[in-house]
Amino acid sequence: xxxxxxxxxxxxxxxxxxxxxxxxxxxxxxxxxxxxxxxxxxxxxxxxxxxxxxxxxxxxxxxxxxxxxxxxxxxxxxxxxxxxxxxxxxxxxxxxxxxxxxxxxxxxxxxxxxxxxxxxxxxxxxxxxxxxxxxxxxxxxxxxxxxxxxxxxxxxxxxxxxxxxxxxxxxxxxxxxxxxxxxxxxxxxxxxxxxxxxxxxxxxxxxxxxxxxxxxxxxxxxxxxxxxxxxxxxxxxxxxxxxxxxxxxxxxxxxxxxxxxxxxxxxxxxxxxxxxxxxxxxxxxxxxxxxxxxxxxxxxxxxxxxxxxxxxxxxxxxxxxxxxxxxxxxxxxxxxxxxxxxxxxxxxxxxxxxxxxxxxxxxxxxxxxxxxxxxxxxxxxxxxxxxxxxxxxxxxxxxxxxxxxxxxxxxxxxxxxxxxxxxxxxxxxxxxxxxxxxxxxxxxxxxxxxxxxxxxxxxxxxxxxxxxxxxxxxxxxxxxxxxxxxxxxxxxxxxxxxxxxxxxxxxxxxxxxxxxxxxxxxxxxxxxxxxxxxxx
Length: 536
Ligand code: NA7
Hints:
This protein is of the alpha/beta class and 536 residues long.
């Protein structure tokens, strides 16, 4: 058994969150901090999701760290919306620039993290048998990092090559001359399908639920654009911080129902042409609150699909059903998605009306037909929010595991802390704005708060911080009340845990918006970390 390694802080994950957390605690507070990372390099989600077409759908200059003006001034993005490879290069640059790699243990998977009540410290064991003892335990494992590979009859019989989009091989996949089957039509598949279709011989797309989408409208970052952004970066960051989703959309109007049909159509059209999340977060305020308003945007987006798909029957299959509301499950952004279905080598297979029965050695059978292919791709999403946390064997007071404590759904205070799990801080955890806020900024908000809390404790020689039960209960009730004011809980979405069989159906995001959330957590810190019990 190797010697126990004593550290002040143990962070798990070297994505945006782990990198910034390490920088703050090691470089600003001079703490002894280490990051354990399963992958062979930094990047988190951007390390693993290398599938064709992988790209961020928030503008590059917004989806990036704001904590260092030098960093944001020196880095140049080549496109309006950066692709996976460029974001990964950016994160590698960040790791080099702040000399973070010496304190990251790569290829290291956490097997268990157990709170020792006697020592008031976390004991973290890796799969290789190393043991760390840390005062603070910070899982920075991302909300979308545990792949969901659904059980399908006969799955082990397939003789061809199989890939999962979020575990894509680093040296890519050669689709030339190949027949390919892809299961899923979520945000990932919608990016991948047009790119794979261009290369492969034949592509079968197995669709269970059609999605509302918006065009991304990507393009090169011009020198003029870059100059303007860099000259006004502080203002831009302030605008992001003040906007609901961490992306400023200034053309949003109050109500879709207050405008005439012509005005509304013209407004949607302009927002649609602006691309990205402009229709979702920049058109009308009430579309996420009022079903009638929502129907206007849903109709508009269906009409766009019909305009772009040549075969009217195919277009109807690609249109979300009437009762499906818009924007309350993750809205994918697309580039040439619908045009891909006009190609001769792409076949849409409706597995809602005729579900997949089994996977075979040569392909798969649905209730209506057989499909043969050489390559099978699972674009089937993630066990979001809780999946990666549960895989780490986290055990708090009285030997209770996080999985047991969250059996009926996540229980947190502010999405940052959990009763019975002292000195554990989650970054963009459930019941925080997380995936409904510009992620790097949501991460910075949390890391700054956690670093301040740790500083506060160290300044007063406090050894242990734990949220009390009434405050945790209060936060859960509050997040539910806020969610119930919106249409979000009506969706069968991964925000609700609805994509994983047996997972409790609870809405896992705090949906009052980033600015309101920031005020809450700042006030709590200013009030001496109200809700936390500190002990020496
Ligand atoms: P999503 O959005 O969860 O999409 C997963 C897709 O896989 C979706 O179309 C699912 O259909 C489909 N799926 C899942 N399980 C099955 C089974 N058993 N049979 C058939 N089809 C299935 O994940 P993505 O990776 O696309 O996007 C996740 C986020 O990653 C994205 O929002 C970005 O933030 C980055 P369903 O809709 O459940 O009928």
